[in-house]
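Chains adopt folds. We examine one example:
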Amino acid sequence: MRAGVLFLILAALVAGHVRVSGADSADTAAFKTAKNLLDDKFYEKAEAAFAQFAATFTNSPWLPDAILGQANARLEQTNYAGAVELLSARIGAAGTRADKYLLWLGEAYYRQGTNRLAAETFAKLSKDFPASTNRLEAVIREARAYKKMAEWGRVVELLGATNGVFRTAIRTNAMAQPGYLLLSEAQLALTNYSAAEATLATLRTAGLEPEMAWQWQYLLCRIQVAAGRVADALQGTSNLLFWAGSTRQPALQAESWAFRAGILEHQDSLEEAITAYTNNLAPGLPAAARQQAFLKIIGLYLATNKVASAAEWLEQLLGQDPNFPAADVGWQTLGELRLRQHSTGPETNGVYLVKAREAFAGLAKNFLQSPLWSKGQMYLGWCYWLEDKIPEAQRAFQSAAERLPPSPDQAFAYFKLADSQFRLKDFTNALNNYTAVIEKFPTLPEAQTNLIERALYQAVRSALAVTNLAAATNLVAKILAWYPNGFHTGPAVLLTGQEISRQGDPGGARKIFSEFAAAAANSTMLPEVQLAIARTYEEEGRWPEAVSLYEGWLGTFTNHPAQPQAEYSRALATFRVGDETNALRFFTNFVARFPTNELTPRAQWWVGDYYFHRGGLEDLKLAEYTFQLLYLGSNHLDPELACQAQMMAGLAAKERQGWTDAERYFTNLANKASCPMDLRLQASFAYGDVLTQGMAPDFKMASLVFGSICHDYPTNWLAAAAWGRRAECLLQNGQFNDALSAFQQVTNLPNADPAFRAQAKVGQARVLEIQAETLTGNEQTEKRRLALNLCLDVLYDESEIRDGGKPNLLFWTQKAGLQAGHLAELMHDWRHARKVYERLRKLLPVLSASLDKKILGAQEKLDAEQKAVP
């Protein structure tokens, strides 16, 4: 029963006590005043009026009813503890109202979330007051409390017993409809689909109110889907939509269309699913439903590879309503789709490029506060760049660079901002922004791979353009130091040495080199120029041409000092072509022919790395042997490389599960005084890992090894990882409090890698969850809540999650999200469980299939709770 039932009870009581003649007595008038305030939902004033009544009219026959009214007012103000306190204290004086006191005391416990007490209180009413007219309602509410605790068996036992209160009362009582639905849902939860459907069949929809009929039909469809009768469920959605329309509740209509669309999507009837979801785009429906439909339709269009249809649909919808829910995603997606059409489809005077620009401009205009705005500016700048509208491109890239968080996108925006300024001959600012790429993103893998070397090269050109030879020389020194074999090193040296003005593209560079070669065929620099030409093909990724040029070079310049460099480059280019077999032969021959060359260790390293990444047992043995030769050789120009090779030999032994050999490599390296400290600590760390593996893991010894790194080198970058490993060892040993402390040390380190911090928080949560299993009641709940908060710290750390999307960080984000959802489910917090899974799905779309099931499950539990709330 809803709260209004109490109003009816009180109204009936008033009618029964009113005198036949004359004015109301003082207590009756005061009671009616308080009741009227309660009826009109002035709960705070109603509570005060009932409290005043109780204090004033201590002998009034209305007193028990006034206490009920006061408790109800407290419930409506979510003061559940106050309602419990009041009803518990006054039930002894309730008289004939005692059953009603128990009914509302149980409701107070239920709303408070103390479901076990709620169930016990409702059961007490049924047992102690066999003549009460509230017994049926109490049984239904008791079952509802068991549902909250997911004790579906108790629900079936309570409502399904032949001689139970529910079964006997419903023969003459029409208030049992929610009980039927609850019993059927419990049978569904227990996968007893035939019983669940049979229970619904006893109720039918005839005579039901539209909302109750909708709930009946929705539950039937869910049963049919769970039982694998998807076709029946799909047919049943017609009735579901009818009843939803009869309720005139937009939320139910939207949920019905979404349910139908989900079935169609499950059946791979994607076009029909799109049509169904389209019904939820209508104005007047809940914003969340419209947004879900919008995003679903986009996804389904793309799933069917209908790029053009998706773009046209988005364009039409956004043209009608530019601020549609999630329209910022729509504008961004539309722009990306148009760019895809521009790059892959038949071009018609740049029409798709213009449409892409217009879409990103729509995002910029309508969604200044959207998190997508900055990335949209980057794409807008790219559109202008492709249209050769360089001033406009510069402004857009400037906005993107200023507002994007540190990320590959921001690095790209800085780089293209500098490119735009270079094109506009603003060489001073171009130099500043190329330098920004170099200085702001030196450790970003994407920048290291795709941008920094190019930024150095372009910075050299910019410095030369303003005759800043000092800056150019400094930049060349950096490019030689950082990329001694890089694609841009030769051109940068030639540019600086001869002050040649460049155009900035590999083809232009190759043309200049070819002209130089033609004009200076006998120059001593010709071999270097020819090698530079070969490198321009490498720069374009045209590896077959590069291989051909190197082979021609090697046949022409047979005695040139750069022959080892050319041999090495040919081997590397052959590898890039994908011809690993010949690359292996060339590198192996290189090592044999040039045993003392400075590139020989790198060639040996490639050979070892090749076998290492193949990963087979024999390959790992060859990798170990190659790295062993490398670190034992006497021709190392860089002693540190020997230590690194020894480390790799140990890793190869570890991968092939040669634990004894791996332990020897790592312990020898860790104790080698000539080895850089960082590598020695890495070796110690790897030794600790070896101790945790194998046939007989020694977590105690491993804990000591990791502990020595933590305590002896607390500021080293490995300290955070070592604390985390030590915590895992302590956890394995059952030292839970020590494990918690060790994990906490990771989070305390200011420079700890984000992934290590994430791993540590997930580890803490895992320990707390284990400890919670040994507890009960509030202590257990508090432990789980602490664990949940730690997982949420990782899942919602936006700045870290967006920091390049590092795989190891995303791994722990995934672990945190799944654990957070699990913990929320353990606490029956279905709303937050759903939110956690939705967040995780957004971050990791690859998990959508499994997460959608979890989201649906949580939503079903939440919907069921909401529908069961009186």
Notes: The chain has a mean pLDDT of 85.
